[in-house]
From TrEMBL, chain A:
<keyword id="KW-0472">Membrane</keyword>
<protein>
    <recommendedName>
        <fullName>ATP synthase epsilon chain</fullName>
    </recommendedName>
</protein>
<dbReference type="InterPro" id="IPR036771">
    <property type="entry name" value="ATPsynth_dsu/esu_N"/>
</dbReference>
<dbReference type="InterPro" id="IPR020546">
    <property type="entry name" value="ATP_synth_F1_dsu/esu_N"/>
</dbReference>
<feature type="domain" description="ATP synthase F1 complex delta/epsilon subunit N-terminal">
    <location>
        <begin position="5"/>
        <end position="84"/>
    </location>
</feature>
<keyword id="KW-0066">ATP synthesis</keyword>
<dbReference type="Pfam" id="PF02823">
    <property type="entry name" value="ATP-synt_DE_N"/>
</dbReference>
<comment type="similarity">
    <text>Belongs to the ATPase epsilon chain family.</text>
</comment>
<keyword id="KW-0406">Ion transport</keyword>
UniProtKB/TrEMBL annotation, chain B:
<dbReference type="InterPro" id="IPR000131">
    <property type="entry name" value="ATP_synth_F1_gsu"/>
</dbReference>
<keyword id="KW-0375">Hydrogen ion transport</keyword>
<dbReference type="Pfam" id="PF00231">
    <property type="entry name" value="ATP-synt"/>
</dbReference>
<comment type="subunit">
    <text>F-type ATPases have 2 components, CF(1) - the catalytic core - and CF(0) - the membrane proton channel. CF(1) has five subunits: alpha(3), beta(3), gamma(1), delta(1), epsilon(1). CF(0) has three main subunits: a, b and c.</text>
</comment>
<keyword id="KW-0406">Ion transport</keyword>
<protein>
    <recommendedName>
        <fullName>ATP synthase gamma chain</fullName>
    </recommendedName>
</protein>
<keyword id="KW-0139">CF(1)</keyword>
<keyword id="KW-0066">ATP synthesis</keyword>
<comment type="similarity">
    <text>Belongs to the ATPase gamma chain family.</text>
</comment>
Length: 134, 293
């Protein structure tokens, strides 16, 4: 059995999860990464997506996060999410609202910002497809 | 000398007031507990954020790559003050304490010949500061409709501040709020947001400064992190404020209830004394009337 390490998922409002886990899949901006025990110290920004956590007792949990960043140490991993919810509790309408807000922002945004926002929408949409069973 | 009926009315009205203040105290106590929980729940995030920020700031160092939000504009001419107060009164000196602290600061800055701009969060602070510095207030944020302060509220203020900064509207930003020490003690505090001061935190976290890999590079993370940190600091300030407000309200209402109790006792004593005096008077009249026969 793989070694376990301490994983913490924190949003500004509260500490969502603090547990011993064996494996965490983080949607980093440079591509998804799987963190296991004794990972090299890394700091990365996180894009909107699903975080999959494999608990030390074999259970697996999924959380939807909306951006943030992760602080990875050999002994543990902290994910500071801008906003995070358990996948089961995610309300599809909330997601749609978010997309609508970004769309509204898209109007009249500069070129550079536009690309960024469009990417953001794509990420959100993808997140929606994963989370909400069609 | 008030008549017996007057006294009776007076007692009834004080009793009604006491009931109200007691209920308000109870409500404040319940809200305080929730606010405290919220403030405590938010603490891990801001702590980790500070640690991470200090770590990266160290890595980037005084490099030119450090974003301007961190280093400031290099000038010190225009100050932006964000004054966070409560939306409602009846909480003792809570609002006026913060406002006084901010006012002293404004006066000091004005005396030094600096330009001052104020953003008011919360109605009460606006009401107080408007009297003296109406022309300096550039914006106010109303949180009256907000039942429970979420991160979005703070984030919106944060974005506004950053936007102003990027337009070069100010050089230094200071946040005024009340730090929640305990139910009876809230300390009005000023905290500098821009340029970010990571000084004391950096020293604390030095011990675990491992060599990190950054993905993307450290400067990119830092430029993503600092705006977020500003929102987080504002969020924390708002939460502390809510807890402080409820604490202050609770003790203010507790005092009011006690004062009303004292007043009722005094009035009741007065009432009884007068009633007795009247009975005695009537008895004397009857007895002397009977004796005269």
């Amino acid at each position: 059995m793989a070694d376990s390490f301490n994983f913490e998922l924190v949003s500004p409002e509260r500490l969502l999860l603090s547990a011993q886990v064996t494996e965490v899949v983080i949607p980093a901006t440079e591509g998804e990464m799987t963190v296991m025990a004794n990972h090299a110290p890394t700091m990365t920004t996180v894009k909107p997506g699903v975080v999959t956590v494999k608990m030390a007792d074999g259970k697996s949990e999924r959380f939807a996060v909306f951006g943030g960043f992760a602080d990875i140490l050999p002994t543990g991993c902290t994910l500071l999410a801008e906003s995070a919810v358990h996948v089961d509790e995610l309300d599809p309408s909330v997601l749609e609202n978010r997309i609508a807000v970004v769309r509204a922002e898209l109007e009249g945004a500069g070129d550079e910002k536009k690309t960024r926002l469009e990417q953001f929408i794509a990420e959100l949409t993808k997140l929606g497809e994963i989370v909400i069973p069609a | 000398m008030p008549s017996l009926k007057d006294l009776k009315n007076r007692i009834a009205s004080v009793k009604a007031t006491q009931k109200i203040t007691k209920a308000m105290k109870m409500v404040a106590a319940a809200k305080l507990r929730r606010a405290q929980e919220a403030a405590e729940a938010a603490r891990p995030y801001s702590q980790r954020m500070a640690a991470v920020l200090a770590n990266i700031a160290q890595a980037v160092g005084a490099d030119d790559a450090a974003p301007r939000l961190m280093t400031g504009t290099g000038r010190n001419d225009t100050h932006l003050l964000i004054v966070c107060t409560a939306e409602r009164g009846l909480c003792g000196g809570f609002n006026s304490q913060i406002a006084r602290h901010a006012r002293d600061h404004v006066r000091k800055l004005l005396a030094e010949g600096k330009t001052v701009k104020i953003i008011c969060v919360g109605k009460k602070g606006f009401d107080i500061l408007r009297r003296e510095f109406a022309s300096l207030i550039i914006d106010r944020v109303d949180l009256r409709e907000v039942r429970k302060i979420g991160f979005e509220n703070a984030d919106r203020i944060g974005h506004k501040v950053i936007e102003l900064f990027e337009r070069g509207e100010f050089d230094v930003c200071t946040l005024f709020y009340s730090e929640f020490k305990s139910v009876i003690s809230q300390i009005p505090t000023a905290q500098q947001l821009i340029p970010a001061s990571a000084g004391p935190v950096a020293a604390e976290t030095e011990s675990n400064s491992a060599i990190y890999e950054y993905e993307p590079d450290a400067a990119a993370i830092l430029s993503d992190l600092i705006p977020r940190n500003i929102s987080v600091q504002i969020f924390r300030a708002l939460l502390e404020n809510v807890a402080g407000e409820m604490g202050a309200k609770m003790s203010a209402m507790d005092n009011a209830t006690r004062n009303a109790g004292e007043m009722i006792n005094k009035l009741t004593l007065n009432y009884n004394r007068q009633r007795q005096a009247q009975i005695t008077k009537e008895l004397i009249e009857i007895i002397s009337g009977a004796e005269a026969l």
